[in-house]
Amino acid sequence: MDWSIILLSLITFVTVGYLWVKKQYSFCEENGIPYVKPTFPLGNIWGVGYKYHLSEILLETYKKLKGQKKHVLGGIYLFTQHVYIPLDLDLLKNILVKDFQYFHDRGIYVNEKDDPLSANLFALSGQRWKNVRSKLSPTFTSGKMKMMHSTIIAVAKEFQDYLEPIAQKNEEVEIKDILARFTTDVIGNCAFGVECNSLKDPNTEFRKIGKRAFEFNNLEFLRLFLIGIFPNLSRKLKAKVTKPEVSEFFMRLLRETIEYREKNNIKRNDFLSLLIQIKNTGKLEGDNTDLGKMTFEELAAQTFLFFVAGFETSSSTMAFALYELAQHQDIQDRAREEINGILEKYNGEYTYDACMEMKYVDQVINETLRKYPVVDTLIRKAGQDYQLSNHDFVLKKDSIILISAYGIHHDPEIYPDPEKFDPDRFTEENIKNRHAYAWLPFGEGPRICVGMRFGMMQTRVGLANLLSKYRVKTTPKTPIPLVFSPSSSVLSAKSGMWLRLEKV
Predict the structure, then answer these.
(1) 162-194: pLDDT as tens digits
(2) Got the DSSP string for 194-225?
(3) Residue 133: pLDDT above 60?
(4) Cα angle 373-466-316, degrees, rounded to a multiple of 5
């Protein structure tokens, strides 16, 4: 064995690799784009998943990029791939709305053949996304929300009953888990027509599977990151983003539920009933619009998205809201006063109209979503070359754009004293005086969250039911200051959200 040849080959390989990486890392500088200096091999994402949440990394890079020479966007590196971070809200408007035809895709991994639940509305691209979106939009109208409102109220009554003995004991509780059980029961009823009963039994299969869908260890987190960076190779390797036990549970549950309903001609006022109508006829009852039929796999993917997005985002938003209200009793008292005043007007009933009148509660929710946007980063992929307005630079086809909603929401130029919790930022007057694209918890434009109305309704009902009867207070275990869980796919407290409830 000629060791000199082996050594020379190794040196050559390392040298070529080093020069290639150096070339990749020079892209932003060569193109005059402000950037944050990367470190091989992870680029600008050192610590993500085990030390920091992605939102925190992007916030720091957003601040550094804004502090450099003025430019409408900056650059960072994920491994050796350069990605862009918009720094100008007018550019955001162009990307999300005005020039949507250039940026209609998210570039998220989909493997419909091996992982059918991955082919959901959030991840789909191109014409497939457009087709599914056109089918789902009619299921989230205000009329359909009114139809589901009574189901939410029924679960909310159970929620109030569950809280009463907790408040009597005057013990600190991990409120995020309780809220997640409430939203699991709501979504289970509205999406599947299934009585989950996770408020009564936290170990129900529905709750355990829901938790598994969002739990990732460091190895799983890295695996998902690599799948996102190398989608074509991942599809060849039949890689899945949905955990097998999660996929098997939902596919089995849906198949059995649909078969039972169709066999017994059962109809309910829930999301699944609407999708079954589309699956079988391509239309919704009372509407002659031809939406096109759905396959079972398409139906399953959208119902799965409704579940995982609906229970986690709403429960996290409520938990963050209660965390802030426990520290700001004056704001909490003002919200409670509004809730109880409206309930008195409606004879104590949480009617749809009553809940829609709770404007200050909405301000509390909006400010919570400003400070803690649960979906903290929006992703777009350039479908074709895009010339930046008033700039020589061209975003090449397949370029990845990361929009840091968390960074924008904590930008002191947009929101003075951004760490302060102030619902009055969202009065009608203050909203009008602010750039329309400075608040992005649901995204914006044609790809805005289709379930936004439902999420807001569920959050509003949950908070109103709790605050009308209970005062929320901090305890020695309340995480002040808050530390985010680095491995969570959405914003969540690392050590739980510990608070105390007191009967009003």
Answers:
(1) 999 999 988 899 999 999 999 999 988 888 778
(2) ----TTT-TT-HHHHHHHHTT---HHHHHHHH
(3) yes
(4) 20
The encoded tokens of residue 245 equal: 């036990």
Cis peptide before 481 (omega within 30 of 0): yes
HSE toward the beta carbon, residue 103, CA cutoff 13 A: 28
Mean predicted lDDT score pLDDT of the chain:
90
Tokens of 432: 């009008």
| Nearest to 274, CA basis, from 452, 456, 459, 451 | 451
Classify each residue of 471-501 as buried b or exposed e, where b means 16 or more C-beta atoms within 10 Å of its C-beta: bbbbeeebeeebebbbbbbbbbbeebbbbbb
pLDDT band at 356 (very low <50, low <70, confident <90, very high): very high
CA 27 to chain centre: 31
The amino acid occupying position 504 is: V
Q: pTM for the complete prediction?
A: 0.93
109's tokens: 């991994």
Q: List all residues 6 or more positions away from 127 whose beta carbon is below 8 Å from its beta carbon.
A: none
Secondary structure (3-state) at 86: strand
Asked if pLDDT for residue 393 goes beyond 60, the answer is yes
Task: Output Rg (C-alpha) for the chain, integer angstroms.
Answer: 24
CA distance 114 to 107: 18
**Three-state SS string across 70-84, please?**
CCCEEEEEECCEEEE
Is residue 498 helix, strand or coil?
strand
